[in-house]
């Protein structure tokens, strides 16, 4: 009797011990999860902070102490220097023009094309789908592309070279196709009975009800245009047509930053804030994206999810 | 005849598709003629058609040199590192984010982790330079402050596969974790509930429920990545490494190699041969691995 009681007690204490062990290891695990995720998030955001805060640092502070979490001395010199020169204004104009014109045209062409690929009435839609898909798996390659733009279309040093090559991205087209396929065909039939032709059905009915996918694909296009430097690297030699990304590249590699940023007739007397100008240019380049970030983030999340699941 | 009738019948629809179709023909199919240059001795004055045929001479030249092996190895090795580390860390992050119940923390962490996706490779390149440059870089300053030797990182090719992998993970962890998180969110809550009743710890739930149920997503993403293993990320490598020749031994990929052959040497034929080699190898791997991916998961693969 006594023995069994003792046994029961020991079993119970063992059980309690196991339970506290478990909840302790559980707590450690949760702590680890928070620590890992938090640390990773900090590492992701740290370079942004360093670029932003040091763009306001005095050049002497960077030269003396390096990039700091909080610089020793602040200054607006870099931004003033940028604002004095002509390059930032012209680069901004080029980037904005290319992004806006490119995105509008690309979304329009992609949506029209995708709508037809998704349309059950179109007999050759599968042929067209294959022609589109094939370009994703077998490219023309750099040489053919270069000769096309430079020698055949004569687009070197023109905005066309920065806009035209990205007007239809097959991947985005297929994202739109998968969306258009989900629309009920009855919409189409009803409108046809009312005497609308396919053009007016597309522009009056389909476009308005497709705003979410248009916004998503449009933002992907806009980001691509804004961030691209490949086309400018290949086809733009004229400084006046350098987009912002090319300006950053010049600032990294160009020794004569003063002449590049300021134009030849600059009469700026202070020493050139080399690091500051680089950081300030990065800030004004990524600035618009991150000002919009809280609003656009969810569209990108949605786009990536659809792209991954349906692509 | 049937074709004409079909086009006339749906003329407005084909009209809508016309700009897109023209785009594909002009920007994707016409430049495929450039592949012919691989078999020619290209001279600008003669053009693609007028230049002299040389058979496989350009390929011979490329495959006889050690460049062939070097750039192919770098492309596959770097992409392999990117796939393994990129997907691995993204998967861990997605699982962890899913376990986090503190919503404000979760939201902020997610926003931060996704941020690097939005910047260009040149901006990344500037950040990398700020971190690694010899005189004023953060890393060397930190090393010096702790009494350690500073290094000239841009002269040390050996460490760059690791550096590029870290950069890749930093930039794309957010992107891939979104895909994994979407898959995890799709798992029915009932699995976890019954596991909890059976006394499973969180760790056990992750190992025995979450990971097995999103295994296919991981495999499919990896297969799609392997399919594109012959394509280096030109924007990334050229944006970060640029023309830093000492780093070529470990960072030069097929794309940067053919770019330099074209733009710096002006050797259209050599560049074209390299690109055709890449395109053919790329086509084969993509077709094979997409087919496997398709078999594994019908919804996730392309087509």
UniProtKB/TrEMBL annotation, chain A:
Alphabetical list of Gene3D superfamilies matching this protein: MetI-like (1.10.3720.10)
Source organism, top-level taxon: Bacteria
InterPro entries per the UniProt record, alphabetical: MetI-like, MetI-like_sf
Transmembrane segments: 29-52, 92-118, 130-153, 159-180, 201-223, 275-293
Any GO BP annotation: transmembrane transport
Membrane topology: Multi-pass membrane protein
Keywords: Cell membrane, Membrane, Transmembrane, Transmembrane helix, Transport
Family from the record: Belongs to the binding-protein-dependent transport system permease family.
Descriptive protein name: Carbohydrate ABC transporter permease
């Amino acid at each position: 009797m006594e023995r069994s009681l003792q046994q029961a007690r020991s079993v119970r204490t063992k059980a309690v011990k196991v339970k506290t062990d478990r909840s302790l290891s559980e707590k450690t695990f949760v702590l680890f999860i928070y620590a890992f995720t938090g640390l990773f998030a900090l590492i992701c955001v740290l370079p942004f902070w360093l670029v932003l805060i040091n763009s306001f640092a005095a050049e002497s502070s960077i030269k003396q102490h390096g990039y700091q979490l909080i610089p020793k001395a602040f200054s607006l010199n870099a931004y003033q220097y940028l604002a004095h020169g002509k390059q930032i204004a012209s680069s901004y104009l080029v980037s904005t023009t290319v992004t806006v014109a490119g995105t509008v045209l690309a979304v329009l062409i992609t949506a029209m094309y995708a709508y037809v690929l998704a349309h059950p009435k179109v007999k050759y839609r599968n042929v067209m789908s294959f022609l589109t898909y094939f370009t994703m798996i077998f490219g023309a390659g750099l040489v053919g592309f270069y000769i096309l733009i430079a020698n055949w279309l004569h687009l070197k040093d023109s905005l066309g070279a920065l806009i035209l090559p990205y007007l239809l991205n097959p991947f985005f087209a297929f994202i739109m196709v998968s969306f258009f396929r989900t629309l009920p065909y009855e919409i189409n039939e009803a409108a046809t009975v009312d005497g609308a032709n396919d053009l007016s059905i597309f522009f009056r009915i389909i476009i308005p009800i497709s705003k979410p996918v248009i916004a998503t694909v449009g933002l992907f296009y806009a980001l691509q245009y804004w961030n691209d430097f490949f086309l400018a690297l290949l086809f733009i030699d004229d400084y006046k047509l350098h987009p912002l990304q090319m300006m950053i590249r010049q600032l990294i590699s160009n020794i004569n930053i003063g002449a590049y940023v300021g134009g030849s007739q600059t009469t700026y007397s202070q020493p050139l804030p080399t690091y500051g100008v680089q950081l300030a240019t990065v800030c004004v380049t990524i600035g618009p994206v991150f000002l919009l970030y809280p609003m656009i983030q969810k569209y990108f999340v949605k786009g990536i999810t659809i792209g991954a699941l349906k692509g | 005849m049937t074709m004409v009738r079909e086009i006339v019948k749906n003329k407005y629809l084909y009209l809508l598709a016309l700009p897109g179709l023209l785009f594909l023909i002009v920007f994707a199919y016409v430049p495929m003629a450039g592949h012919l240059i691989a078999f020619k001795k290209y001279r600008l004055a003669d053009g693609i058609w007028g230049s002299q045929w040389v058979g496989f001479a350009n390929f011979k030249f490329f495959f006889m040199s050690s460049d062939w092996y070097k750039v192919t190895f770098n492309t596959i090795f770097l992409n392999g590192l990117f796939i393994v580390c990129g997907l691995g860390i993204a998967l861990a992050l997605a699982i962890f984010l899913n376990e986090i119940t503190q919503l404000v923390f979760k939201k902020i962490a997610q926003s931060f982790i996704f941020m690097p996706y939005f910047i260009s490779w040149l901006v990344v390149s500037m950040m990398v330079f700020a971190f690694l440059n010899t005189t004023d870089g953060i890393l060397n300053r930190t090393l010096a402050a702790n009494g350690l030797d500073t290094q000239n990182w841009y002269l040390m090719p050996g460490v760059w596969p690791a550096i590029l992998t870290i950069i890749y993970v930093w930039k794309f962890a957010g992107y891939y974790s979104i895909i994994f998180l979407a898959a995890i969110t799709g798992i029915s809550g009932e699995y976890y509930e019954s596991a909890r009743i059976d006394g499973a710890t969180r760790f056990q739930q992750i190992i025995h429920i979450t990971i097995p149920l999103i295994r296919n997503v991981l495999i499919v993403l990896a297969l799609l990545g392997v399919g594109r293993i012959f394509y280096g990320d030109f924007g990334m490598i050229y944006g970060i490494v640029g023309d830093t020749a000492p780093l070529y031994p470990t960072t030069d990929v097929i794309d940067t190699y053919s770019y330099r052959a074209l733009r710096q040497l002006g050797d259209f034929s050599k560049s074209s041969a390299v690109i055709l080699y890449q395109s053919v190898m790329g086509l084969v791997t993509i077709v094979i691995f997409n087919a496997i991916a398709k078999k594994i998961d019908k919804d996730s693969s392309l087509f």
